[in-house]
Amino acid sequence: MLESSNAETFRKIYDATMPVIFKVAFRIAGTEEAAEDLCHDGYIKMYEKNMCFPSLDDAKYWLIRVIKNASLNYAKRKERERKAYERALKEDTRKQDSGETELLKRDTTGQVQRALQVLPEKLRVALTLAEYGDLNYKEIGRILGISEGNVKVRIFRARDQLSKLLKEDEIYVP
Amino acid sequence: MCPDSQLHSAFYDEEIPEPWNKRFADHVEHCPDCKARLASYKAISNTLETTDPDCTQSFLDDSFARLTTKLHKIPVVQAQQRITPAGFVPIKYVKIAAAAVFIAAFLPASFFLGKITAEHRMSADVAYYNSVMAHQQASVAFPPQKANVSITQPFSGVPVANETQAVPVFEPGHGIVIQNVEQTTPMIIIRLPNPDFSAFAETNQQLSSTGSK
Fold first, then answer.
1. Whole-number mean pLDDT of chain A?
2. Going by C-beta distance under 8 Å and a sequence separation of 6 or more, which residues neighbour residue B202?
3. How many CA atoms lie within 13 A of B85 on its CB side?
4. Between chains, do A174 and B13 touch, taking CB under 8 Å as contact?
5. What CA–CA distance (Å, rounded) separates B100 from B97?
6. Is the entire prediction scored with pTM above 0.80?
7. A173 by DSSP, 3-state: which?
8. CA distances to A29, A156, B41 from A166, in Å
9. Does any CB of chain A come closer than 8 Å to the CB of residue B135?
10. Does pLDDT of A46 surpass 50?
11. Which sign does the torsion angle of CA B74, B79, B85, B88 carry?
12. b/e B56-69 (16+ beta carbons within 10 angstroms → b)
């Protein structure tokens, strides 16, 4: 059993899972700073709850589930904040970007990230887990609480829509 | 005829079982449309990969250091009594002062009842505080003992130095003030369902002694 209260085990779980969950959190939350904080919160929760896992894979599934939910909540909160500011200022803040931000927006990373954000939440999360989680459909279904068939449909739709969005934006695709 | 479009995505993720996987692969080999669709999926993966955030070993090590710092800020607290919910007023308890209150109020009676023990003093204190605050349905939690709070370092369990916490404290003449108190400071907890601190006016003398430093 892997006990998260043991320092050595904790580090082992961290090393095995951080690269994956950080990318998942980044794709959902949108920024590296937020992604790192969300991941840290997940590990702290794991430590505080003194979680015991039969295997590293189980630890990974648990952490992905926790961080996926936290990231979605974070993204929703940020969106609510943005809308609130828009209402308060009675204008679309997105039109007030500085020149620097505009340059950043033209950056491929920003465009891909924005294209991902345009996808419906369910599709975005499924695709993110498929691309980064190193998980099969069965495992993704277990994390999301849906059937394998549903996972297959969501990933297909996500790829289809993302492909169209990236073509519209004329993003350089290597 | 091309397979259902959903299967392309599953094929790309290697989720189609044999023998269908091989048959699909054979079809793709000779179908430019299916090949193009799979190429677009590959392109998406490449784009996502090239736009990934840096996740180098040095980043992971630095991030772990930051995580460890956060973990050290979280005390492992095992408290028998939480002392800050609404309606509770903790008062610093000083044994000598409490003993003085006891002597002033109960020594004559107890003196004739026999030898004064620690239990006598505590029960006398409880009775005294309950009697002076009975009119506002206050009750005093006793015995006054150190809050069972231990703060240890993460993983090692090594105790760390006492830290202070801000708690509301009744100070005669000043009312309720916020004081920094060591987390292991002994406290008397007085439950006040409907806090009316003017009631303490009559007990200022006694509370003054218990509240003094």
1. 82
2. B132
3. 6
4. no
5. 5
6. no
7. coil
8. 20, 15, 12
9. no
10. yes
11. negative
12. eeebeeebbeebbe
Q: Which amino acid is at B178?
A: I
Task: State the amino acid at position B154 in one-letter form.
Answer: P
CA dist B89 → B70, B170, B195, B197 (Å): 31, 7, 9, 10
CA distance A28 to chain B (A): 12
Put simply, whether A19 touches B (Cβ < 8 Å) is: yes
A83-87, B30-34, B190-194: which has the minimum mean pLDDT? Answer: B190-194
Q: What is the pLDDT of residues B157-178, one digit of tens each?
A: 776 666 666 666 665 555 566 6
User: What are the chain B neighbours of A109 within 8 Å (beta carbons)?
Assistant: 51
Contact yes or no for B41 and A18 at CB 8 A: no
Q: Quick count: other Cβ atoms within 10 Å of Cβ A44?
A: 16
How far apart CA B60 and CA B170 sit, in angstroms, is: 48
CA A17/CA A57 separation, integer angstroms: 9
Which residues, in sequence order, are bridge partners of residue B139? Answer: B191
Pairwise CB contact (< 8 Å): B45 & A153 = no
CA distances from A90 to A79, A81, A96, A102, B180 (A): 16, 14, 12, 21, 45
Q: How far, in Å, are A137, B181, B188 from residue A69 at the CA level?
A: 19, 38, 42
Which value does ipTM take for this structure?
Answer: 0.77
> What span, in angstroms and rounded, lies between the C-alpha atoms of B195 and B204?
16
